[in-house]
Amino acid sequence: MSMSRKAIRQALTIARRDFIATVFTPMFLFFLLAPLIMASFSLIGGLGASSVADSAGSHERLVVIADPADAKLIGRVDEQLRALFTKDAMPADLQVESPGADPAAQARAAIDRSGYDVDAAMAGPIEHPHIFYGNGATRSASYLAALAEAAVRARAGGLAPKSIATRTEVKRHQASVSGQHAAGFIAVFGVFFLTLFLAGQTVGTMAEERANKVIEILAAAVPLESVFFGKLVGMFGSAVLFILFWGTIAAQIGHVLPPEAAQAIHDLAPAVGWPAFIVLFCLYFTMAYLLLGSVFLTIGAQATTIREIQMLSLPITFTQVGMFALSSAAAAHPGSWIALFAEVFPLSSPFAMAALAANTPGLTWHLLALVWQALWVAVMIAIGARWFRRGVLKSGGPKRKSKLGNTVAAAGEATGQIPY
Amino acid sequence: MPRLRSATVLDFARTERGNMIVDSAYAASASGLVKIFSGRRVVDGVDLAVPKGMIYGVLGPNGAGKTTTLRMLLGIIEPEEGERMLLGRSHPRDASDRVGYLPEERGLYPAMRAKEAIAFMGALRGLDWKTGRARAVEMLEAAGLGHAADDKIRKLSKGMAQLVQLLGSIVHRPELLVLDEPFSGLDPVNQEKLEKLIRAERDRGATIIFSTHVMAHAERLCDRLAIIAGGRNRFEGTVAEARGTLPFKARYVPHHDDGGIGALLPADAERRDDGWSFTLPEEGIEALLVRLIDAGYGIAGLSIERPSLHEAFVRIVGREALEEQPA
Fold first, then answer.
1. Same-domain check for residues B23 and B93
2. Which terminus of chain B is more exposed, N or C, with fewer CB under 10 A?
3. What is the pTM of this model?
4. Sign of the CA dihedral A326, A331, A332, A333?
């Protein structure tokens, strides 16, 4: 058997053990269903926030002090203008009131009205209205100004449309820039989210071998590089299982998405095309997992206690968020120097290249990037194994001092123990 | 002791991708191994030559450098200086599938079942899982642990777990079995089982290297042995040769004893129980006995004792190093 086949066989033996040890435990079920917990809390939080927003929205008004002659016209124009807004961007409800002795004072006083919030109030002739608005409600003030303008025009020319347009929806044959950018961001976020969720697990995997003192058996039989790679593959297997489980569910949910959400997905347009994009996304997730996982595994392998491993979670999260921020900037500015840096820097490369697949056609750079990233996985594993061998797999330690300490010192003896 | 740089006439070397492969009479050999930790030479030029098919003991007090030497021999750690040859390979890793190893620090995955743990250790050495499981069950039954084949390691006693690990180190039928302090932590019954198992492995054709600081096991088992102390070789040879480093002892019991007898006995004579113990004179004991009889002390008892390996070990290593050992 060639050395490479032997190394692969040994790595797969380690991977098999780790995969089984991870998946066939009650804790894995808890891990698998963790997104449900997250989704539940998000749902509760979202409902709460939505309820608060709805409640606040129903207590906001725009007030127009207008003669009864203008009131009807303003109401009709308001209806026409509101058709241009989405639900989320809709201005507050309009309330038209008859003018008193001093309409300007009446409008100003409306801002301080109790019972509901008046964002902006308008008084005076619609050719020269006076608009009052509360703190920061410039958008509401602008809407009232536009309303007055449209009302003046309608009074002069009537409400009937002057231009009759023919509308024809045309499907783009080329990906739109916004669709590409959206796909780029989703690619970066998707790879980030999955690695954030899954790659951090590798940090504690060597701790098991150290705690159980199995490491010397493994190290005697298998090169440490194969041990490290096997552990990565084993954990990656459990990550893939996780993704397959939730991917299958997500695919079913896709069929019952509301039309707006389905349209949003439909509008995504990766530059390399969907089939190539999906393949590249999977490959870049694999590389991101292996790259970040190998770094975390290397660092975690040096930890001697559970506490040390727990303390590593913060720098790990920061590293991942840093790579995400860098790659998001790259996705937003394709072709820029920051994009180039993110694409070349090993730890951000998978994220940034996934964004590149969404933004720029062509596959050649992706082949090079995958080779580059695979090279760095090998480098990280080699460094990790060497570091582990030097730092952990060694005999010797502080000399034991006793009444015969000098004799021992002269003999230069080692303790013969692995300092676990 | 053979040096690798000048291989013996039994060694026929060829190279393959920079890896020297030697058809050698030795299962394992090392020349001038040096390991430095934190500036300290914990192994300082150790040589070993382990003939094939033998039980070879690596003896030394605690901290002598035995474990580090074995780890370097197996390729777990790399020496700073020196060369190794394991089953004819200059890169020990290349022979790893033909080697079994029981480290001093015992370790198994607690959640694994006994037969899976054995099969796993075999799989690491190239044995397929199906064969590994089948052999595991056979071996566990032969060792009286058949009932525990499907038990998880965490449910086994320490001695049972240790036996499972030992079986895991031989499940792939290695040509070379390296056992680091295999008897530590075992009760007398299991120590005897282990001795039988080591002999059975030798009878199967395997070479066994084991380290120990307990002389009784070495005395009973070893065909050859090396004594290491302070990271250096102190002795290499058979048990008889080790004992031969000390002269025979005579134990003499007179019919009656008084202050004058000491003047007739050799200078190193020590009173022991109801008699005297002293080194057998080089010219023989006959002349001394004649003098004792003529002086009227007579001979109530006389025995010639071979020095034990323990005594030889103490002499070779130095009493100070032994007294350093924890109780």
1. yes
2. C
3. 0.73
4. positive
Q: What is the pLDDT of residues A46-70, one digit of tens each?
A: 777 776 666 655 688 899 998 888 8
Tokens standing for residue B223? 């065909």
In a domain, B61, yes or no: yes
Q: Is A140 helix (H, G, I), strand (E, B) or coil?
A: helix
Distance of residue A388 Cα from the nearest chain B Cα, in angstroms: 11
Closest CA relative to residue B237, chosen from B41, B7, B47, B20: B47
What was the pLDDT predicted at B5?
Answer: 43
Whether the pLDDT of residue B105 is over 50: the answer is yes
Where exactly are the structural domains of chain A?
59-157, 176-391
Do the chains contact at A415 and B62, CB–CB below 8 Å?
yes
Residue A332, class by beta-carbon neighbours within 10 Å (0-12 exposed, 13-18 middle, 19+ buried)?
middle
The chain A residue lying nearest B181, using CA atoms, is: A416
pLDDT digits (tens, 9 = 90+) for A308-347: 887 887 888 888 888 888 888 888 888 889 989 999 999 9
Domain count, chain B: 2
Which residues does A158 contact at the CB level (< 8 Å), separation at least 6?
none
Q: Which residue has the tokens 């500015």?
A: A333
**Residue B14 confidence (pLDDT):** 57
Closest-CA residue of B relative to A227 is: B124
Q: Read off the CATH number of the domain in which B218 is found.
A: 3.40.50.300
Residue B142 belongs to a domain: no
Half-sphere exposure of A85 (CA within 13 A, CB side): 14
CATH hierarchy code of domain A59-157: 3.40.190
- Interatomic CA distance for residues B289 and B300, integer angstroms: 12
Q: Provide the chain A residues 25-64 that lie in CB contact (below 8 A) with chain B.
A: 25
Tell me which residue of A244, A270, A275, A281 sits closest to A370, measured CA to CA. A281
Structure tokens at A159: 């409400």
Q: Classify residue B22 as exposed, middle or buried by CB count within 10 Å of its CB (0-12, 13-18, 19+).
A: buried
User: Is B113 inside a domain boundary?
Assistant: no
* Tokens 């459990």 -> residue: A238
Domain that holds residue B238: 4-107+168-242
The pLDDT of residue A233 = 93
For residue B40, list chain A residues with Cβ-Cβ distance below 8 A. Answer: 396, 399, 412, 414
- Tell me whether residue B314 is in a domain: no
